[in-house]
Amino acid sequence: MWKSSFISGLGLIALSGILYTVERFIAVFKWISEVVPIKINGSGQYPSEPNMPGVFDNIFVGIFLILGLVLIIIGLNKGIKKSI
C-alpha cells in the first residue's frame, strides 16, 4: 500500500511540474504573437520580456504539488514502519 502512495505522490508532483512548464510555454508564445507584428510594422511598443506565471498562479499546480508531497510523506512513513 505504501508503494502506491509513494508513486501517486511522485506522479502528482510530476504533473504539477508539467502544468507549470506548459503555462510558461504559453506565456512565451503569447508574448511572441504580440511582439512579432509590432516588429514587422515597426510601430508601437511591446514589453521586453514575457509575463511569466508564478508557481501558485494556477490553483491546480499548487494543489497537485502539496497533495503529492503529502502522499510521498505518507508513503515513506508507512514504508519505514513496515520495514522496522
What does this protein structure show overall?
The protein is mainly α and 84 residues long. It contains two helices and no strands. It has helices at residues 2-41, 59-83. Helix 1 (2-41) runs antiparallel to helix 2 (59-83). The protein is rod-shaped. It starts with a helix and ends with a helix. The mean pLDDT is 88.
Give me the secondary-structure topology.
Blueprint: H1 2-41, H2 59-83
Helix pairs in contact: 1-2
Transmembrane segments: 59-76
Keywords: Membrane, Transmembrane, Transmembrane helix
Q: What does the overall shape look like? A: rod-shaped
H/I helix tally:
2
Q: Helix and strand succession?
A: HH
Oligomeric status: single chain
Largest sheet: none
Q: How much helicity do the residues have? A: over 70%
Radius of gyration: 20 Å
Helical/strand content category = mainly alpha
Distance from N terminus to C terminus (CA atoms, Å) equals 16 Å
Give the beta-strand count. Answer: 0
Average pLDDT across residues? 88
Strand residue content: under 5%
Domain unit count = 1
Low-pLDDT stretches: none
List the defining traits of the structure above.
84 residues, mainly alpha, 2 helices, rod-shaped, membrane
What is this structure, in a nutshell?
The protein is mostly helical and 84 residues long. The protein has helices at residues 2-41, 59-83. The chain has one domain (2-83).
